[in-house]
Amino acid sequence: MTGIDAAYRNYIDGAWVPGGAGHIDVTDPGSGAHLTRVALADAADVDRAVEAAARVHASRALAALRPVERGRMVRAVGAWIAAHRNTWAPVLTREQGKPLWEAEIEIDGAARYFEYYGNQAETVEGRSIPLGDGYIDYTTCEPYGVTAHIIPWNYPVEMAARSVAAALATGNTVVIKSPELTPVAITMIAHAAQAAGFPPGAVNLLCGLGPVAGAALAGHPKVNQIVFTGSVATGIAIATAAAQNVVPCVLELGGKSAAIVHDDADLDAFETDIRWGIFFNAGQVCSAMSRIVVHESRHDEVVERATAIARALSVGPGIERRESGPNMGAMVSQAQRDRAAGMVARAVAAGAKLATGGHALNLPGAFMEPTVLTGVTPDMEIAQQEVFGPVLSVIPFRTEDEAIAIANGTDYGLVGGVFTRDLDRAMRATRAMRAGQVFVNEWFAGGVETPFGGIGKSGYGREKGREALWNYVQTRNTAIKLR
Ligand code: NAI
Ligand code: MG
Asked: What domains lie within the chain, and their CATH numbers?
């Protein structure tokens, strides 16, 4: 077994501290067994973390640095994470359920965010505005101050890295609220910040219950900006708290994203999209390809291929799955697994058919069969609500307009895909799809460099890419009268 400590602490104002609310037990969803315990923050802990971050911001210890220096520190966080990947990937697997090779991908992805935003630190520039000879006028990009990062359990290390890297690169200070289901591996970010030389209080990390520590952080009067990834209901609560304090937030709230597969699509290539689009991280991905909207002439063929891919996946403890391959780990918890299985059962009761899967696996832990549903109509719960599990719905269409209407026919609008060899048809879809990013002929095409975020109930604001830098700075205009 890999080294997992019996207990973990929170990181507040440069010290590793116990929690005012005691501790929370962390379960290994790959076995159902107790894994470790983590300090649980109360509102007073949140207050100390925010005060520390506010003190560092007021000192201008980060904001005053030449951006290249700040960028080097941010990159050093990434280098530390990359160097410690093999120690922490098994920890992430044991607390989250994903295969070890997927945990390695996540930690590499986290390191990459710090590399990317470290490199971007020097590119944030203002402009000069001509007002005639009597004036000099220029803008500067000022950090907001204390940024709050409320993190989900599906990619805890990578999601924290995504927003923290951009916030630090632009000179903000940080308080991270880690997810109560997966609060362990994310602590590597605090260790990395410490090792990279960020002063005490610049980066704080605490685990706490959403309605307690999460709500205290979102509503704290000294928090200046909030980033949240998670459910719509919690997003609304956070945006409401932010509005009370008149601070901006970025909300990334998941989706019910559709791939439109036309009659001329390359289905051999599309098999890769099915495999990754819905079964990566056991489908617990906000931008999962949870619906395939396929031309009726190719429907049966797509169902056959999806069924074969699902059945070829070996499902079991992530820690035994070291090599990238046709395998899948546990879901994050039995509650999330039961929620997904319940949605499938209701879909079947409503008339959908199981092409394969659909049930909890008879194993200790939180395992769910890779599932493919047919006979799904666009108005069913399974076609409208996020399952957040390895569950694919296949829906046939006849006309292009109908395909777009089905794809756009949910409250969400995170990502969308179109699969065709016809460029005109692809371009029509890219314009018509209600989604923050559209994939043509490859699901998940893009990277750290490409902006990501939603339309509608999928949220607002953009993470990733250079767009995300503007979440963390406010323009100050300085106008000088010359004599
Ligand atoms: P959640 O949205 O409640 O939890 C996400 C984070 O928000 C956690 O850190 C949690 O502690 C925190 N939180 C919860 N209530 C809060 C509050 N009142 N104030 C401040 N922070 C709060 O998600 P949950 O309940 O774990 O999962 C439910 C569903 O949400 C999932 O089945 C999935 O559909 C969706 N979800 C989507 C994610 C995405 O990547 N878009 C990630 C996680 C969940
Ligand atoms: Mg919740």
From this structure: 7-254+459-478 (3.40.605.10), 257-411+415-447 (3.40.309.10)
